[in-house]
Amino acid sequence: MKKQWKVIVLGVVAVLIVGGGIWAYHWYLALRCFANLCMISQAISMYCMDHGDALPARMSELKDYTKPGIFVCPSSGS
Q1: Where are the beta strands (DSSP E) in 1-78?
Q2: Phi, then psi, of 7 in degrees rounded to 5
Q3: Are 61 and 42 in contact, with CB atoms under 8 Å apart?
Q4: Burial class of residue 43 in the structure, from the number of CB atoms within 10 Å of its CB (0-12 exposed, 13-18 middle, 19+ buried)
Q5: Residue 74 to residue 3: CA distance in whole angstroms
Q6: Residues 6+ apart with CB under 8 A from 74
Q7: Does the structure show a pLDDT above 70 at 53?
Q8: Measured distance CA(62)–CA(65) in Å, rounded
């Protein structure tokens, strides 16, 4: 009977650890997405300062102001 309780307790602990890890990973992706949005906002602001308050016609015009891959969703796996 004692072994069954140990197995049950270990199973519950394992589920909590795995669930916490999955939650933390999704939180990490959300933070990366927010950081990318902040960088895009800063890039647009710098572009406007350099081009007389004009907004970029295409996002590709921001390539000199951003790092590669900033327009890719972090959760897409690319």
Answers
A1: none
A2: -65, -40
A3: no
A4: buried
A5: 43
A6: 29, 32, 33, 36
A7: yes
A8: 5
C-beta separation of 47 from 61 below 8 A: yes
Tens of pLDDT, residue by residue over 21-52, are: 787 888 888 898 898 899 999 999 999 999 99
Task: For residue 46, give the 3-state DSSP assignment.
Answer: helix
Residue in 74, 77, 71 with CA at minimum distance from that of residue 44 = 71
- Contact predicate 64/58, CB 8 Å: no
Residue 33 near residue 78, CB atoms below 8 Å: no
Rounded Cα–Cα distance for residues 4 and 55 (Å): 66
The per-residue pLDDT for range 2-28, each reduced to its tens digit, is: 667 777 777 777 777 777 778 788 888
Per-residue pLDDT tens digits for 55-75: 888 888 888 888 888 888 887
CA atoms within 13 A on the CB side of 57: 0
